[in-house]
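Colleagues,

For the teaching module next term, I've prepared a clean inverse folding example: a structure given as tokens, and then the sequence designed for it. I'd like students to try predicting residues themselves before seeing the answer, so please don't circulate the second half yet.
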């Protein structure tokens, strides 16, 4: 049977490319090619730019409340089609159905609803200066580009489109070539909700298409989610016309557990922050610092819960809570890191191998893995692995653990577990990270801004301040008195 083949979505509809070039998409839980996608060629790219320009001219002149209504309809459609869309995400990413069904679509819809609600409240200021005054206008930027990673494909598309569109911009979005379908489904929904053609376009392909988008002269902003190294390339491309940028990049985040912490809760946090979405989450706390007094108890509980409660297998099985990694290549990369950990002297508490669950024997699984006896200078402690690999370290002194936690070029997230409220805030305030949790981990409601310190990113997604990142301020001075001139 012929595989389904998807076209690019530009100017309000699926559009065939001229070259006939396409790529395969693989279900990571089975290793099977499930569909094909046409590459964006020069005709598609030109149509995307022309339609985004035209879309912007229509969309930016609607009233904000008209934009709100359309975006709210899109959010409602996302929720109505939750299961259909969650299924797309499971097939593309290999993540468990029980996650996608509850998190992926809902968190995307939340962002659209949140920014739709804020659209009419994007306001400037007015101030008197003597007899004169000035006011500011918050104007849309124009055509914005979104470039996504593969771990939360639909959510990433929504988190970028929502503030961009709410502020009156148009968008050209390029999903990861590993997970291209969710963004196409979002484009369909936007059209059904009444979005004018060209306001949200999806172009398909890999690095070359991303680079084209990031460097295009008519694109005013690029919001990127992906690896630090790719982010640096995107910044270079964006410098061609000095684009505004948002960078959501990788992390190697610390979780610090003090000896007065609720151990059961802290183990839950460490497990969520290492094994949810089979470890493929940017904010994961892959460096777990345990106070030496609770190390033995913490590790005993951790090992028992991993070995008894984590169920890997066919992601569509409702009992499965641990899915397949995105690709054979990524599985090998994670296994190579594990081998490196062993070579550098870390000891395995559990895991450390590929898995072949009976219900998904050809999937790209890696067992939930915990390394103990880790040192700060080991490769597995320093580099983002983006898989289910936790490194456990110990400490006894507060200042020392803060210094060690901050000793990295990354700064995406951090967590602290303690019952001492003064210590909790004191420590969190000293950690160099953009997203922090006290006695919690991983939760990211749309109201809360997220983004990284240091090389983990630039700018924020979600929260009120994101509105500033999709608008530009125009200051208008009004002369009420005679203009004083020496000429
Ligand atoms: P990646 O950097 O390999 O790819 C991301 C996107 O960039 C893809 O769409 C890819 O096609 C595109 N791309 C590749 N080369 C490009 C180039 N030269 N110019 C423009 N675009 C290019 O990342 P990935 O492997 O898809 O995703 C995993 C990474 O994403 C991890 O490092 C993870 O931490 C990070 N991530 C960060 C966040 C966050 O919010 N901070 C969220 C999710 C994932």
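(Answer key — instructors only)
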């Amino acid at each position: 049977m012929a595989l389904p083949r998807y076209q690019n979505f530009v100017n309000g509809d699926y559009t065939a490319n001229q070259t006939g070039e396409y790529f395969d998409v693989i279900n990571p839980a089975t290793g099977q090619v499930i569909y094909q996608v046409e590459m964006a060629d020069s005709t598609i790219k030109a149509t995307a730019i022309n339609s985004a320009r035209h879309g912007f001219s229509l969309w930016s002149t609607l009233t904000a409340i008209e934009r709100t209504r359309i975006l709210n309809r899109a959010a409602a459609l996302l929720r109505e089609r939750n299961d259909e869309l969650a299924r797309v995400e499971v097939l593309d990413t290999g993540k468990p159905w029980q996650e996608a069904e509850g998190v992926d679509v809902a968190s995307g819809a939340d962002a659209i609803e949140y920014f739709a609600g804020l659209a009419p409240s994007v306001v400037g200021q007015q101030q008197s200066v003597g007899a004169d005054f000035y006011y500011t206008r918050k104007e849309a930027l124009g055509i914005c580009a979104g470039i996504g990673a593969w771990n939360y494909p639909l959510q990433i598309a929504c988190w970028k489109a929502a503030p961009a569109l709410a502020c009156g911009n148009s968008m050209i979005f390029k999903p990861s070539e590993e997970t291209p379908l969710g963004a196409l489904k979002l484009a369909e929904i936007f059209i059904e909700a009444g979005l004018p053609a060209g306001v949200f376009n999806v172009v398909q392909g890999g690095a070359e298409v991303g680079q084209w988008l990031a460097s295009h002269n008519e694109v005013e902003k690029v919001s990127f989610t992906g690896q630090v190294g790719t982010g640096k390339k995107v910044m270079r491309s964006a410098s061609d016309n000095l684009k505004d940028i948002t960078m959501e990049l990788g992390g190697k985040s610390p979780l610090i557990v003090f000896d007065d912490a609720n151990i059961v809760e802290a183990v839950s946090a460490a497990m969520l922050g290492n094994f949810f979405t089979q470890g493929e989450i940017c904010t994961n706390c892959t460096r777990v610092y345990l106070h030496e007094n609770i190390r033995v108890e913490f590790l005993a509980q951790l090992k028992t819960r991993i070995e008894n409660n984590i169920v890997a297998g066919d992601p569509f099985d409702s009992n499965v809570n641990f899915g397949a990694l995105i690709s054979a290549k990524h599985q090998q990369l994670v296994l190579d890191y594990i081998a490196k950990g062993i070579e550098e002297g870390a000891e395995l508490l559990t895991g450390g191998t590929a898995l072949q669950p009976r219900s998904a024997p050809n999937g790209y699984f890696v067992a939930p893995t915990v390394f103990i006896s880790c040192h700060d200078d080991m490769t597995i402690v320093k580099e983002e692995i983006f898989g289910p690999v936790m490194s456990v370290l110990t400490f006894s002194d507060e200042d020392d653990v803060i210094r060690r936690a901050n000793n990295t070029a990354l700064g995406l997230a951090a967590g602290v577990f303690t019952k001492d409220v003064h210590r909790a805030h004191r420590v969190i305030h000293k950690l160099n990270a953009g997203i922090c949790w006290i006695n919690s981990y991983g939760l990211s409601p749309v109201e809360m801004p997220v983004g990284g310190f240091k090389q983990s990113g630039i700018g924020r997604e979600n929260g009120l301040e994101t509105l500033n990142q999709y608008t530009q301020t125009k200051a208008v001075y009004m002369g009420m008195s005679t203009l004083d001139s020496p000429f």
